[in-house]
């Protein structure tokens, strides 16, 4: 039997430390002394196969990341509920003043599959939170039953929801914040990018 993953992760931290603390200590010192100044807010799925830093080769300090089930952005709803994703968006836009927001969807998403299955069969997940969380993408199932098509529509839906945040809309309209919809085709290793002018996803690398 191989080593448990947590043991390999501890060893992984040692090699991370060797790279950043021993080979590039000035970079770490800058990040500590100057604080973080990421240019990008990236909203990704919690799925273990779609780690944004691994997929994009980003370095510490470059991306402010929110991960949740199915990379969903809720609509702007300032109330007494616990809005983790909205709080992160607010901090990234209003305080860190990121220049770009990327919503990164992906192929084979379990959250989107559950959403489509619910729409097809009426079966409600036997869970306390996932059903109501996924319901914010409910309008996307009209593009089903193709899960991957629904998944890409969900990225568009999240981009639309981002524009319901007044501080996002204001900066987008002023031209100093850009929204991006990306979709990772896991099977072929293709990053699709949403072209809003053509209202379609186009194949990148
Ligand atoms: Zn997912």
TrEMBL record:
Cofactor: Zn(2+)
Binding site for Zn(2+): 45, 47, 106, 109
Catalytic reaction(s) noted: hydrogencarbonate + H(+) = CO2 + H2O
E.C. number(s) listed in UniProt: 4.2.1.1
Any one biological process term the GO annotation gives: carbon utilization
Similarity field: Belongs to the beta-class carbonic anhydrase family.
Role, per record: Reversible hydration of carbon dioxide.
Protein name from the UniProt record: Carbonic anhydrase
Organism this protein belongs to: Thalassospira alkalitolerans
């Amino acid at each position: 039997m191989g080593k448990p993953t947590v043991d390999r992760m501890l060893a992984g931290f040692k090699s991370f430390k060797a790279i950043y603390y021993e080979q590039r200590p000035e970079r770490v010192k800058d990040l500590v002394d100057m604080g973080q100044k990421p240019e990008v807010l990236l909203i990704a799925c919690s799925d273990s196969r779609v780690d944004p830093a691994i997929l994009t080769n980003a370095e510490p300090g470059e991306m402010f990341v929110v991960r949740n089930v199915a990379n969903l952005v809720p609509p702007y709803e300032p109330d007494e509920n616990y809005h983790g994703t909205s709080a992160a968006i607010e901090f990234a836009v209003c305080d860190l003043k990121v220049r770009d927001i990327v919503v990164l969807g992906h192929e084979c998403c379990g959250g989107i599959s559950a959403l489509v299955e619910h729409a097809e069969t009426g079966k409600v997940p036997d869970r306390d939170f996932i059903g109501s969380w996924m319901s914010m993408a409910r309008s996307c199932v009209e593009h089903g039953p193709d899960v991957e098509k629904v998944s890409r529509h969900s990225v568009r839906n999240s981009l639309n929801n981002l524009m319901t945040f007044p501080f996002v809309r204001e900066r987008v309209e002023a031209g100093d914040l850009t929204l991006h919809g990306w979709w990772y085709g896991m099977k072929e290793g293709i990053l699709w990018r949403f072209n809003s002018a053509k209202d379609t996803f186009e194949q990148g690398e």
